[in-house]
Amino acid sequence: MSSTGKVFDAIVIGGGAAGLMCAAVAGQGGARVAVLDHSETVAEKIRISGGGRCNFTNRDVTVTNMVGENPRFARYALTEYPSSRFIDLVREHRIPFHEKHKGQLFCDNSAQDIIDMLMAECAKGRVQHMRPVTVGEVKPDGDDGWVVQVSGVGELRVRHVVVATGGLSIPKIGATDWGYRLARDLDIPVVETRPALVPLMFDPVQWQPFAAMSGLALPVRVRAPAEKGAPVFDEDLLFTHRGLSGPAILQISSFWQPGQDIEIDLAAGVDWESILIAGKAGGRHLLKNAVLDNMPKRLWDTWLDQPDWHSVAAQRHADLADKPLRALAASLRQWRVRPMGSEGYRKAEVTRGGVSTRALDAVTMQSKAHRGLHFIGEVVDITGWLGGYNFQWAWASAHAAGRAIACGR
Ligand SMILES: Cc1cc2nc3c(=O)[nH]c(=O)nc-3n(C[C@H](O)[C@H](O)[C@H](O)COP(=O)(O)OP(=O)(O)OC[C@H]3O[C@@H](n4cnc5c(N)ncnc54)[C@H](O)[C@@H]3O)c2cc1C
What we know:
The protein is built from 13 helices and 22 strands.
Protein backbone atom coordinates (compact mmCIF):
# COMPACT_ATOMS: atom_id res chain seq x y z
CA MET A 1 0.00 0.00 0.00
CA SER A 2 1.26 3.50 -0.64
CA SER A 3 0.62 6.80 1.08
CA THR A 4 -1.20 7.94 -2.08
CA GLY A 5 -3.74 5.17 -1.92
CA LYS A 6 -2.45 3.80 -5.21
CA VAL A 7 -1.34 0.20 -4.96
CA PHE A 8 1.26 -1.21 -7.31
CA ASP A 9 3.53 -4.21 -7.26
CA ALA A 10 6.02 -2.52 -9.54
CA ILE A 11 6.83 0.87 -10.91
CA VAL A 12 8.81 1.27 -14.09
CA ILE A 13 10.79 4.48 -14.35
CA GLY A 14 11.09 5.47 -18.02
CA GLY A 15 8.37 4.92 -20.61
CA GLY A 16 10.63 4.15 -23.54
CA ALA A 17 11.13 0.95 -25.48
CA ALA A 18 12.26 -1.20 -22.55
CA GLY A 19 9.98 0.38 -19.93
CA LEU A 20 6.76 -0.07 -21.92
CA MET A 21 7.64 -3.63 -22.87
CA CYS A 22 8.48 -4.59 -19.29
CA ALA A 23 5.29 -3.01 -17.93
CA ALA A 24 3.18 -4.84 -20.53
CA VAL A 25 4.75 -8.23 -19.74
CA ALA A 26 4.55 -7.78 -15.96
CA GLY A 27 1.00 -6.41 -16.18
CA GLN A 28 -0.22 -9.22 -18.40
CA GLY A 29 1.40 -11.65 -15.97
CA GLY A 30 -0.85 -10.30 -13.20
CA ALA A 31 1.30 -7.62 -11.56
CA ARG A 32 -0.08 -4.16 -10.85
CA VAL A 33 2.25 -1.84 -12.69
CA ALA A 34 2.72 1.88 -13.28
CA VAL A 35 5.05 3.49 -15.81
CA LEU A 36 6.46 6.88 -14.83
CA ASP A 37 8.12 9.28 -17.25
CA HIS A 38 9.29 12.86 -16.95
CA SER A 39 8.22 13.59 -20.52
CA GLU A 40 4.70 14.29 -21.65
CA THR A 41 4.95 11.76 -24.45
CA VAL A 42 6.23 8.21 -24.25
CA ALA A 43 8.86 6.53 -26.38
CA GLU A 44 10.27 9.56 -28.17
CA LYS A 45 13.29 7.53 -29.27
CA ILE A 46 11.13 4.93 -30.92
CA ARG A 47 9.36 7.76 -32.74
CA ILE A 48 12.58 9.12 -34.28
CA SER A 49 14.27 5.76 -34.76
CA GLY A 50 15.18 4.27 -38.10
CA GLY A 51 14.50 7.55 -39.87
CA GLY A 52 10.92 7.49 -38.51
CA ARG A 53 10.30 3.88 -39.57
CA CYS A 54 11.90 2.16 -36.53
CA ASN A 55 14.33 -0.65 -37.27
CA PHE A 56 12.57 -2.60 -34.52
CA THR A 57 14.70 -5.73 -34.58
CA ASN A 58 16.99 -7.87 -36.67
CA ARG A 59 16.21 -11.39 -37.88
CA ASP A 60 19.45 -12.66 -36.42
CA VAL A 61 20.49 -11.34 -33.00
CA THR A 62 23.10 -12.96 -30.78
CA VAL A 63 25.54 -11.80 -28.13
CA THR A 64 28.13 -11.31 -30.88
CA ASN A 65 26.12 -8.25 -31.93
CA MET A 66 26.43 -6.76 -28.45
CA VAL A 67 29.18 -4.58 -27.00
CA GLY A 68 30.07 -4.15 -23.31
CA GLU A 69 32.39 -5.48 -20.62
CA ASN A 70 30.58 -8.81 -20.72
CA PRO A 71 28.24 -9.15 -23.72
CA ARG A 72 27.57 -12.80 -22.78
CA PHE A 73 25.40 -11.45 -19.96
CA ALA A 74 22.75 -10.85 -22.63
CA ARG A 75 22.65 -14.49 -23.73
CA TYR A 76 19.85 -15.66 -21.43
CA ALA A 77 17.52 -12.77 -22.18
CA LEU A 78 18.15 -12.91 -25.94
CA THR A 79 17.57 -16.66 -26.00
CA GLU A 80 14.38 -16.48 -23.94
CA TYR A 81 13.03 -13.62 -26.00
CA PRO A 82 14.57 -13.88 -29.49
CA SER A 83 13.71 -11.50 -32.31
CA SER A 84 11.26 -14.09 -33.72
CA ARG A 85 9.02 -13.49 -30.69
CA PHE A 86 8.96 -9.75 -31.22
CA ILE A 87 8.27 -10.31 -34.93
CA ASP A 88 5.32 -12.53 -33.94
CA LEU A 89 3.98 -9.70 -31.76
CA VAL A 90 4.34 -7.22 -34.62
CA ARG A 91 2.48 -9.64 -36.91
CA GLU A 92 -0.25 -10.16 -34.29
CA HIS A 93 -0.82 -6.39 -34.36
CA ARG A 94 -0.93 -6.49 -38.18
CA ILE A 95 1.86 -3.97 -38.51
CA PRO A 96 3.26 -4.05 -42.03
CA PHE A 97 7.05 -4.27 -42.17
CA HIS A 98 9.89 -5.07 -44.53
CA GLU A 99 13.48 -6.24 -44.43
CA LYS A 100 15.90 -3.60 -45.64
CA HIS A 101 19.46 -4.86 -45.36
CA LYS A 102 21.26 -7.62 -43.46
CA GLY A 103 18.17 -8.79 -41.56
CA GLN A 104 17.11 -5.31 -40.44
CA LEU A 105 13.32 -5.03 -40.07
CA PHE A 106 11.53 -1.69 -40.47
CA CYS A 107 7.90 -0.59 -40.31
CA ASP A 108 6.36 0.09 -43.74
CA ASN A 109 4.39 3.03 -42.39
CA SER A 110 5.80 4.66 -39.30
CA ALA A 111 7.49 4.04 -35.96
CA GLN A 112 4.21 5.14 -34.38
CA ASP A 113 2.89 1.65 -35.18
CA ILE A 114 5.37 0.17 -32.69
CA ILE A 115 4.49 2.75 -30.03
CA ASP A 116 0.76 2.07 -30.51
CA MET A 117 1.44 -1.66 -30.25
CA LEU A 118 3.35 -1.26 -26.97
CA MET A 119 0.64 1.01 -25.53
CA ALA A 120 -2.03 -1.54 -26.53
CA GLU A 121 -0.01 -4.29 -24.85
CA CYS A 122 0.26 -2.11 -21.72
CA ALA A 123 -3.50 -1.55 -21.78
CA LYS A 124 -4.01 -5.32 -21.95
CA GLY A 125 -1.93 -5.58 -18.78
CA ARG A 126 -3.91 -2.75 -17.08
CA VAL A 127 -0.73 -0.71 -16.80
CA GLN A 128 -1.17 2.80 -15.43
CA HIS A 129 0.77 5.75 -16.80
CA MET A 130 1.98 8.74 -14.82
CA ARG A 131 3.55 11.58 -16.77
CA PRO A 132 4.99 14.06 -16.76
CA VAL A 133 6.27 13.40 -13.25
CA THR A 134 9.56 13.93 -11.47
CA VAL A 135 10.85 10.89 -9.69
CA GLY A 136 12.65 11.83 -6.49
CA GLU A 137 14.27 9.65 -3.88
CA VAL A 138 14.22 5.86 -4.27
CA LYS A 139 14.93 4.15 -0.95
CA PRO A 140 14.74 0.59 0.38
CA ASP A 141 11.56 0.04 2.40
CA GLY A 142 12.41 -2.64 4.91
CA ASP A 143 13.79 -5.90 3.49
CA ASP A 144 11.31 -6.46 0.77
CA GLY A 145 10.37 -3.31 -1.02
CA TRP A 146 11.05 0.22 -2.10
CA VAL A 147 9.62 3.61 -1.42
CA VAL A 148 9.72 6.09 -4.28
CA GLN A 149 8.93 9.82 -4.14
CA VAL A 150 6.97 11.06 -7.12
CA SER A 151 6.03 14.69 -7.77
CA GLY A 152 2.32 15.38 -7.51
CA VAL A 153 1.70 11.78 -6.42
CA GLY A 154 3.59 11.35 -3.16
CA GLU A 155 5.20 8.18 -1.88
CA LEU A 156 4.77 4.91 -3.73
CA ARG A 157 5.60 1.69 -1.88
CA VAL A 158 6.32 -1.21 -4.19
CA ARG A 159 8.16 -4.54 -4.28
CA HIS A 160 9.82 -3.85 -7.62
CA VAL A 161 11.41 -0.76 -9.11
CA VAL A 162 12.48 -1.07 -12.74
CA VAL A 163 14.96 1.48 -14.00
CA ALA A 164 14.42 1.95 -17.74
CA THR A 165 15.66 5.50 -18.16
CA GLY A 166 17.84 4.72 -21.18
CA GLY A 167 21.14 6.30 -22.20
CA LEU A 168 22.43 9.83 -22.64
CA SER A 169 22.02 10.34 -26.37
CA ILE A 170 19.79 13.10 -27.74
CA PRO A 171 19.24 15.07 -24.48
CA LYS A 172 16.76 17.36 -26.22
CA ILE A 173 14.19 14.56 -26.31
CA GLY A 174 14.48 13.66 -22.66
CA ALA A 175 17.64 11.61 -22.08
CA THR A 176 19.02 11.93 -18.54
CA ASP A 177 21.67 10.31 -16.38
CA TRP A 178 19.09 9.50 -13.71
CA GLY A 179 19.52 5.72 -13.87
CA TYR A 180 23.31 5.92 -13.65
CA ARG A 181 23.07 8.30 -10.68
CA LEU A 182 20.66 6.04 -8.83
CA ALA A 183 22.99 3.10 -9.40
CA ARG A 184 26.00 5.01 -8.09
CA ASP A 185 24.03 6.26 -5.05
CA LEU A 186 23.32 2.63 -4.21
CA ASP A 187 26.96 1.58 -4.77
CA ILE A 188 26.08 -0.33 -7.93
CA PRO A 189 29.07 -0.09 -10.31
CA VAL A 190 28.61 1.84 -13.55
CA VAL A 191 30.95 1.26 -16.49
CA GLU A 192 32.17 4.57 -17.90
CA THR A 193 29.74 5.88 -20.51
CA ARG A 194 30.50 7.39 -23.92
CA PRO A 195 28.65 8.14 -27.13
CA ALA A 196 28.38 5.20 -29.55
CA LEU A 197 26.92 4.71 -33.03
CA VAL A 198 28.09 8.24 -33.64
CA PRO A 199 29.82 10.16 -36.48
CA LEU A 200 33.55 10.80 -35.97
CA MET A 201 35.25 14.20 -36.30
CA PHE A 202 38.76 15.17 -37.32
CA ASP A 203 41.13 18.02 -36.69
CA PRO A 204 39.82 20.73 -39.07
CA VAL A 205 43.27 21.49 -40.49
CA GLN A 206 44.10 17.82 -41.14
CA TRP A 207 40.65 17.23 -42.55
CA GLN A 208 40.70 20.18 -44.91
CA PRO A 209 41.93 18.19 -47.99
CA PHE A 210 39.20 15.57 -47.48
CA ALA A 211 36.37 18.02 -46.82
CA ALA A 212 36.06 18.36 -50.62
CA MET A 213 34.54 14.87 -50.59
CA SER A 214 31.72 15.93 -48.26
CA GLY A 215 28.52 14.17 -49.32
CA LEU A 216 30.33 11.31 -51.07
CA ALA A 217 29.18 7.83 -49.97
CA LEU A 218 30.88 4.57 -50.87
CA PRO A 219 31.03 0.98 -49.64
CA VAL A 220 34.07 0.32 -47.43
CA ARG A 221 35.47 -2.17 -44.96
CA VAL A 222 36.36 -0.61 -41.61
CA ARG A 223 38.09 -1.80 -38.46
CA ALA A 224 39.57 -0.54 -35.19
CA PRO A 225 43.05 -2.11 -35.33
CA ALA A 226 43.97 -1.37 -31.70
CA GLU A 227 40.87 -3.13 -30.33
CA LYS A 228 41.61 -6.85 -30.11
CA GLY A 229 38.69 -8.98 -31.22
CA ALA A 230 36.70 -6.02 -32.56
CA PRO A 231 34.68 -6.95 -35.65
CA VAL A 232 35.28 -5.70 -39.17
CA PHE A 233 32.30 -3.99 -40.78
CA ASP A 234 31.42 -3.92 -44.49
CA GLU A 235 29.07 -0.98 -44.81
CA ASP A 236 28.72 2.41 -46.48
CA LEU A 237 30.85 5.35 -45.45
CA LEU A 238 29.83 8.99 -45.81
CA PHE A 239 32.30 11.89 -45.99
CA THR A 240 31.12 15.00 -44.12
CA HIS A 241 32.51 18.52 -43.71
CA ARG A 242 33.84 17.63 -40.27
CA GLY A 243 34.77 14.00 -40.70
CA LEU A 244 33.20 10.63 -41.36
CA SER A 245 29.73 9.21 -40.92
CA GLY A 246 27.48 6.57 -42.48
CA PRO A 247 26.73 3.07 -41.17
CA ALA A 248 30.39 1.90 -41.39
CA ILE A 249 31.57 4.70 -39.12
CA LEU A 250 28.64 4.46 -36.71
CA GLN A 251 29.42 0.76 -36.29
CA ILE A 252 33.14 1.21 -35.67
CA SER A 253 32.56 4.19 -33.35
CA SER A 254 31.25 1.76 -30.74
CA PHE A 255 34.67 0.11 -30.65
CA TRP A 256 36.93 3.11 -31.25
CA GLN A 257 38.67 4.72 -28.27
CA PRO A 258 39.98 8.29 -28.22
CA GLY A 259 43.63 8.41 -29.29
CA GLN A 260 43.30 5.38 -31.57
CA ASP A 261 43.28 5.05 -35.35
CA ILE A 262 40.61 3.49 -37.50
CA GLU A 263 41.55 1.69 -40.68
CA ILE A 264 39.39 1.98 -43.77
CA ASP A 265 39.56 -0.05 -46.96
CA LEU A 266 38.26 2.46 -49.48
CA ALA A 267 38.62 -0.11 -52.23
CA ALA A 268 36.43 -2.74 -50.61
CA GLY A 269 35.60 -5.49 -53.06
CA VAL A 270 37.62 -3.90 -55.90
CA ASP A 271 41.07 -5.16 -56.93
CA TRP A 272 42.66 -1.76 -57.57
CA GLU A 273 46.12 -3.23 -57.85
CA SER A 274 45.16 -5.30 -60.90
CA ILE A 275 43.03 -2.51 -62.36
CA LEU A 276 45.82 0.06 -62.09
CA ILE A 277 48.44 -2.28 -63.50
CA ALA A 278 46.18 -3.46 -66.34
CA GLY A 279 45.32 0.19 -67.07
CA LYS A 280 48.92 0.86 -68.11
CA ALA A 281 48.27 -0.77 -71.48
CA GLY A 282 47.25 2.10 -73.70
CA GLY A 283 47.39 4.56 -70.76
CA ARG A 284 48.90 7.51 -72.65
CA HIS A 285 47.18 9.99 -70.31
CA LEU A 286 48.57 11.23 -67.01
CA LEU A 287 47.56 8.98 -64.10
CA LYS A 288 45.52 11.79 -62.52
CA ASN A 289 43.38 11.93 -65.70
CA ALA A 290 42.65 8.18 -65.69
CA VAL A 291 38.94 7.36 -65.68
CA LEU A 292 38.44 4.20 -63.69
CA ASP A 293 35.20 2.25 -63.27
CA ASN A 294 34.08 2.06 -59.61
CA MET A 295 36.37 4.91 -58.57
CA PRO A 296 34.42 8.05 -57.63
CA LYS A 297 36.11 10.97 -59.38
CA ARG A 298 36.11 13.10 -56.21
CA LEU A 299 37.93 10.38 -54.31
CA TRP A 300 40.49 9.87 -57.10
CA ASP A 301 41.18 13.63 -57.38
CA THR A 302 41.43 14.11 -53.61
CA TRP A 303 43.60 11.05 -53.14
CA LEU A 304 46.13 11.97 -55.83
CA ASP A 305 46.20 15.52 -54.52
CA GLN A 306 47.92 14.30 -51.35
CA PRO A 307 51.66 15.21 -51.29
CA ASP A 308 52.65 11.49 -51.29
CA TRP A 309 51.07 11.01 -54.73
CA HIS A 310 51.81 14.31 -56.51
CA SER A 311 54.70 13.00 -58.59
CA VAL A 312 53.03 9.67 -59.42
CA ALA A 313 49.81 11.44 -60.43
CA ALA A 314 51.72 13.70 -62.82
CA GLN A 315 53.27 10.80 -64.81
CA ARG A 316 51.80 9.00 -67.80
CA HIS A 317 49.94 5.93 -66.62
CA ALA A 318 51.74 3.75 -69.19
CA ASP A 319 55.17 4.91 -67.98
CA LEU A 320 54.65 4.02 -64.32
CA ALA A 321 56.32 0.96 -62.82
CA ASP A 322 54.09 -1.55 -61.05
CA LYS A 323 55.57 -0.70 -57.63
CA PRO A 324 54.08 2.80 -57.18
CA LEU A 325 50.75 1.57 -58.56
CA ARG A 326 50.76 -1.23 -56.01
CA ALA A 327 51.61 1.27 -53.27
CA LEU A 328 48.78 3.54 -54.44
CA ALA A 329 46.30 0.64 -54.35
CA ALA A 330 47.55 -0.32 -50.87
CA SER A 331 47.09 3.24 -49.60
CA LEU A 332 43.44 3.09 -50.66
CA ARG A 333 43.05 -0.29 -48.99
CA GLN A 334 44.63 0.69 -45.69
CA TRP A 335 43.70 4.28 -45.00
CA ARG A 336 44.58 4.90 -41.36
CA VAL A 337 43.06 7.97 -39.77
CA ARG A 338 42.89 9.21 -36.20
CA PRO A 339 39.62 10.91 -35.28
CA MET A 340 39.85 13.86 -32.92
CA GLY A 341 36.61 12.85 -31.25
CA SER A 342 33.00 12.02 -31.90
CA GLU A 343 29.98 14.23 -32.56
CA GLY A 344 28.93 13.44 -28.97
CA TYR A 345 25.61 12.60 -27.37
CA ARG A 346 23.85 15.22 -29.49
CA LYS A 347 24.29 12.95 -32.52
CA ALA A 348 24.93 9.51 -30.98
CA GLU A 349 22.26 6.85 -31.41
CA VAL A 350 23.25 5.11 -28.19
CA THR A 351 25.40 5.23 -25.07
CA ARG A 352 28.14 2.70 -24.53
CA GLY A 353 28.78 1.63 -20.92
CA GLY A 354 26.25 1.85 -18.11
CA VAL A 355 25.16 -0.20 -15.13
CA SER A 356 27.67 -3.01 -14.82
CA THR A 357 26.37 -6.43 -15.76
CA ARG A 358 28.57 -7.82 -12.95
CA ALA A 359 26.11 -6.29 -10.51
CA LEU A 360 22.98 -7.75 -12.17
CA ASP A 361 21.31 -11.14 -12.37
CA ALA A 362 21.05 -12.19 -16.04
CA VAL A 363 17.69 -13.95 -15.57
CA THR A 364 15.76 -11.19 -13.77
CA MET A 365 17.88 -8.08 -14.54
CA GLN A 366 17.75 -7.52 -10.79
CA SER A 367 20.56 -5.95 -8.77
CA LYS A 368 22.44 -8.72 -6.97
CA ALA A 369 22.80 -6.47 -3.93
CA HIS A 370 19.31 -4.90 -3.94
CA ARG A 371 16.39 -7.26 -4.25
CA GLY A 372 13.52 -5.88 -6.32
CA LEU A 373 15.60 -3.28 -8.15
CA HIS A 374 15.89 -4.06 -11.89
CA PHE A 375 17.82 -2.31 -14.66
CA ILE A 376 16.80 -2.87 -18.29
CA GLY A 377 17.49 -1.53 -21.77
CA GLU A 378 20.17 0.95 -22.65
CA VAL A 379 20.96 2.01 -19.07
CA VAL A 380 22.72 -1.38 -18.73
CA ASP A 381 26.25 -1.89 -20.05
CA ILE A 382 25.02 -3.74 -23.13
CA THR A 383 25.05 -1.86 -26.44
CA GLY A 384 23.93 -3.33 -29.73
CA TRP A 385 25.41 -2.84 -33.16
CA LEU A 386 23.55 -0.68 -35.65
CA GLY A 387 20.73 -2.66 -37.26
CA GLY A 388 17.87 -3.24 -34.82
CA TYR A 389 20.05 -4.83 -32.16
CA ASN A 390 19.51 -2.10 -29.57
CA PHE A 391 15.75 -2.45 -29.67
CA GLN A 392 16.04 -6.23 -29.47
CA TRP A 393 18.13 -5.83 -26.31
CA ALA A 394 15.49 -3.44 -24.94
CA TRP A 395 12.67 -5.94 -25.68
CA ALA A 396 14.58 -8.97 -24.37
CA SER A 397 15.88 -7.41 -21.16
CA ALA A 398 12.44 -5.93 -20.52
CA HIS A 399 10.81 -9.29 -21.05
CA ALA A 400 13.20 -10.93 -18.57
CA ALA A 401 12.43 -8.36 -15.87
CA GLY A 402 8.70 -8.36 -16.64
CA ARG A 403 8.50 -12.15 -16.30
CA ALA A 404 10.42 -12.05 -13.03
CA ILE A 405 8.04 -9.43 -11.60
CA ALA A 406 4.97 -11.37 -12.74
CA CYS A 407 6.37 -14.50 -11.07
CA GLY A 408 7.11 -12.53 -7.89
CA ARG A 409 10.86 -13.22 -8.14
C1 LIG B 1 18.13 8.88 -33.63
C2 LIG B 1 18.09 7.47 -33.09
C3 LIG B 1 17.70 6.43 -33.91
C4 LIG B 1 17.69 5.12 -33.43
N1 LIG B 1 17.29 4.13 -34.25
C5 LIG B 1 17.30 2.85 -33.81
C6 LIG B 1 16.81 1.78 -34.63
O1 LIG B 1 16.29 2.02 -35.74
N2 LIG B 1 16.93 0.51 -34.15
C7 LIG B 1 17.45 0.24 -32.91
O2 LIG B 1 17.53 -0.93 -32.53
N3 LIG B 1 17.83 1.24 -32.08
C8 LIG B 1 17.76 2.52 -32.50
N4 LIG B 1 18.14 3.53 -31.66
C9 LIG B 1 18.52 3.19 -30.27
C10 LIG B 1 17.24 2.94 -29.45
O3 LIG B 1 16.35 4.01 -29.64
C11 LIG B 1 17.57 2.79 -27.96
O4 LIG B 1 18.61 1.87 -27.78
C12 LIG B 1 16.33 2.35 -27.19
O5 LIG B 1 15.32 3.32 -27.31
C13 LIG B 1 16.67 2.14 -25.72
O6 LIG B 1 15.49 1.86 -25.03
P1 LIG B 1 15.32 2.25 -23.49
O7 LIG B 1 13.92 1.97 -23.14
O8 LIG B 1 16.42 1.67 -22.71
O9 LIG B 1 15.55 3.83 -23.48
P2 LIG B 1 14.65 4.96 -24.14
O10 LIG B 1 13.86 4.42 -25.26
O11 LIG B 1 15.57 6.09 -24.39
O12 LIG B 1 13.61 5.37 -23.00
C14 LIG B 1 14.02 6.01 -21.81
C15 LIG B 1 12.80 6.70 -21.22
O13 LIG B 1 13.15 7.15 -19.92
C16 LIG B 1 12.65 8.45 -19.75
N5 LIG B 1 13.46 9.11 -18.74
C17 LIG B 1 14.76 9.47 -18.82
N6 LIG B 1 15.14 10.04 -17.67
C18 LIG B 1 14.07 10.04 -16.84
C19 LIG B 1 13.84 10.50 -15.52
N7 LIG B 1 14.82 11.11 -14.83
N8 LIG B 1 12.62 10.34 -14.98
C20 LIG B 1 11.63 9.74 -15.68
N9 LIG B 1 11.78 9.29 -16.95
C21 LIG B 1 12.99 9.43 -17.52
C22 LIG B 1 12.74 9.09 -21.12
O14 LIG B 1 11.86 10.18 -21.23
C23 LIG B 1 12.36 7.92 -22.01
O15 LIG B 1 10.98 7.87 -22.24
C24 LIG B 1 18.11 4.85 -32.10
C25 LIG B 1 18.46 5.91 -31.27
C26 LIG B 1 18.45 7.21 -31.74
C27 LIG B 1 18.82 8.33 -30.80
